[in-house]
DNA sequence: ATTGATGCAGAATTCAATTCGGCCATTATC
DNA sequence: GATAATGGCCGAATTGAATTCTGCATCAAT
């Protein structure tokens, strides 16, 4: 695939225009990426090679980051999901981020706006393992406190939805998005 | 694939023993599910048909829930990520969950232990869209208040890690996990 | 009007997924 | 303890899809 300067993902070059057909393709592939290009072409109204070309382009442009197996956490004995607020003095320092991302239990690391804290998502085998992980996190330099939210049950978990509208219904009088 | 009684996922039948080889396979497929069975077999020390059999079994048992394209949120114009605490009177009622999951911006819905609240993950085009979504959520029956955490930047986002140890290093004197 | 580029379809080729038969090891059964 | 039965693997063979190639139509720019 592409090269990363570091462990932390860089911004992609451009991410060209994603038109209505591309969105349809994404919508299908998010649901099931094991289908043939013939099947994909049928569903979006293209010939197999044309569908193939589109998908190759979406991959190259980075719109499709990856094609991955989605695993049942229970099957690999990681049934316990928790979100953890980590208060830090001075957020976003790379060494601390690296230290946190070392733990394989950590699935996501986000910086929260307007607050000197990180919100991370962790998955462990049980509460004892979570406790151990939390104490190890607390030992990371810069971490001043943690507050964890254990998930009792999950009702919905789905990937990013590409949307199926032709173009985005954002009124023209609106300012550009944050990013 | 399998049948769901409802929009809400059911518990799988069994999820058989996942041995060390299975974990290796999962580890590879989480990284990249587009490789050939020959390649997969090479990496885990199996012939192509054997690797194929394993994967089929992992799919049937539900350990591999899905094989999906992972989309770059920016490419589909959903760069704004936020977590929202939703306080509810009486959590987990199905109609409310359904109402919340109707919104395509909602990616995850979790019930938090020890609190009458839900933690949901949403992705929108910009802050205005987020504001609109929040007000629509607030109109859902049972919702008493919301508190949102807008993500400034994301440093890590990865799928469930299957782990690569032969068996789990949980000491035998420990009690069984919660779930 | 002409040229160039882009995206598509259809046919042809290459390569991988899938099936099949037989072997070996482990486990259950008598 | 001997034997059947099961499960998992390999190697070869077959089927089927991915990929390449060629030509055509459309649109944009010159």
TrEMBL record, chains A, B:
Question: InterPro entries this protein is in?
Answer: ArsR-like_HTH, AsnC-type_HTH_dom, Dimeric_a/b-barrel, Tscrpt_reg_AsnC-like, Tscrpt_reg_AsnC/Lrp_C, Tscrpt_reg_HTH_AsnC-type_CS, WH-like_DNA-bd_sf, WH_DNA-bd_sf
What Pfam families does its record include?
AsnC_trans_reg, HTH_AsnC-type
Residues in coiled coil: none
Output the CDD domains linked to this UniProt entry: HTH_ARSR
The family database entries (SUPFAM superfamilies) matched by this protein are listed as: Dimeric alpha+beta barrel, Winged helix' DNA-binding domain
Q: Which UniProt keywords apply?
A: DNA-binding, Transcription, Transcription regulation
Q: Which residues form the HTH asnC-type domain?
A: 18-92
Q: Which PANTHER family match?
A: HTH-TYPE TRANSCRIPTIONAL REGULATOR LRPC, LEUCINE-RESPONSIVE REGULATORY PROTEIN
What protein am I looking at? AsnC family transcriptional regulator
């Amino acid at each position: 695939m592409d090269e990363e300067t570091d462990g932390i993902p860089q911004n992609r070059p451009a991410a060209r225009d994603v038109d209505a057909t591309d969105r349809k393709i994404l919508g299908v592939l998010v649901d099931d990426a094991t289908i043939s290009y013939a099947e994909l072409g049928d569903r979006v109204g293209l010939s197999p090679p044309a569908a193939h070309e589109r998908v190759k382009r979406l991959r190259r442009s980075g719109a499709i980051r990856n094609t991955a197996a989605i695993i049942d956490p229970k099957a690999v004995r990681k049934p316990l999901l928790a979100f953890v607020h980590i208060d830090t003095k001075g957020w976003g320092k790379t060494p601390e981020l690296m230290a946190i991302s070392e733990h394989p239990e950590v699935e996501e690391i986000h910086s929260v706006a307007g607050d000197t804290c990180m919100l991370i998502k962790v998955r462990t085998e049980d509460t004892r393992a979570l406790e151990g992980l939390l104490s190890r996190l607390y030992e990371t330099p810069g971490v001043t406190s943690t507050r964890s939210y254990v998930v009792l049950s999950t009702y919905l978990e789905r990937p990013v939805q590409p949307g199926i509208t032709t173009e985005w219904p954002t009124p023209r009088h609106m300012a550009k998005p944050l990013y």
